[in-house]
Amino acid sequence: MTVNVHEGPHGYTPLLFLGTKEGREEFASFRASWEKERGKLTLIDDLLREENAEYGLLLDPTFLARGEKPPFPFDASLDGTWVVYPWRSVAVHVLPEEAFKALRLSRNKDLITAEEGRLLASKTIAIAGLNVGNPAAICLAQEGIGNKFRMADNDTLALSNLNRFRAGLPDLGENKAVLSARQAYEIDPFLAIEVWPDGIAKDNLERFITDADIVVEEMDNLPLKILLREEARKKKKPVVMVTGNGHDIILDIERFDTTPDLPLLSGKLTKDVIDAVAKKLPFEEKIALARDFMGREYLSDRLNDSFDKVGKTLIGIPQLAEASFLRGAVLAHAIRDILLGVPVESGRYAFGLSQLYTVRS
């Protein structure tokens, strides 16, 4: 049986052909049709034998201590799932879903217990803004945090993004949510990802977060930041966000799930800020508002000074790859703890690489 056969309007969904007689026949038919219409479909089949052996070791780790080779649990040629990535013109032969996930996440043990892993894999995560949200989405997918994702962004990848966005020149011009979904699916083809390439708006916010267990907000649009939080507060959904400080980060956690009357963004989104947004401020005042929104007291001197240069000697607020990857890791860590019920309080947390050399052992 074939599942996930819809490629999506932007080509971000893989095609899965299960290891059944019907699935193998469908894959053979699909491959013949593909190569007739589109050219060669590259097959990656030679690693499945190694994965099969490693899965056998996972089932009985004592073979490792004895220096023996475990038996193969599967007849790989019959049981393996073919995963086709249309955007790469590649088909990869992988273990069946249960074995695939167990082996792929095997190095999580015992940092994430089996019970915790099952709980995390049942969650739905909504990510609004896949620039900063991209490293978070990838880290979540790698750790097995969440099985269903909703990714929204209407922006496309530009050359100036490549100092921090995990992509390359062939990806320029592609939607950032589409790229993030592709990257996550290339880690785990059994995920369920909804891509919203037009982003979110006032009229679809409710649908975006209704069944989500947690919301990641990383948009540039301040009015939408406010509307999303108001909707999350109504639906009692926790919201997390990180912003950058060159090489440091600011983490905001809003536990609307436990404290629905919490002020928006720890009180940073005051009535004055909301009124200022509604006034359609001049460019310079918008930039100053963005700096105040992030918090001058949290920003390095260089970053604080750079805000005054945007539109003069700078074309945007400076950001670095090291902070981008750190933001992704911090978001994933906070999301995991919240979903597992670890006591995580609402508030703003600031830390980063500038503290790296402050403590020596």
Structure characterization notes:
- Pfam families: ThiF (PF00899).
- InterPro entries: ThiF/MoeB/HesA (IPR045886), ThiF_NAD_FAD-bd (IPR000594), Ubiquitin-activating_enz (IPR035985).
- The protein is α/β, with parallel strands linked by helices and about 350 residues long.
- The protein folds into two domains: about 1-105, no CATH class; about 115-355, Rossmann fold (3-Layer(aba) Sandwich).
- The chain is built from 14 helices and twelve strands.
- It has a seven-stranded mixed sheet with strand order 8-7-6-9-10-11-12, sandwiched between helices.
- The radius of gyration is 23 Å and the shape is globular.
- The model is unreliable at about 1-10 (pLDDT under 50).
Summarize the structure in short.
It comes from Candidatus Lloydbacteria bacterium RIFCSPHIGHO2_02_FULL_54_17. The protein has 361 residues and is α/β, with parallel strands linked by helices.
Distance, first to last CA? 57 Å
Question: What's the level 1 CATH class of the largest domain?
Answer: Alpha Beta
Q: How many individual helices?
A: 14
- The helix-strand sequence is EEHEHHHEEHHEHEHEHEHEEHHHHE
Mean pLDDT: 89
**Total number of strands:** 12
Q: What can be said about the biggest beta sheet?
A: 7 strands, mixed
Can you tell me the overall shape? Answer: globular
Helical percent range?
25-40%
Domain module tally: 2
Notable characteristics:
disordered N terminus, Rossmann fold, five-stranded mixed β-sheet, 361 residues, 12 strands
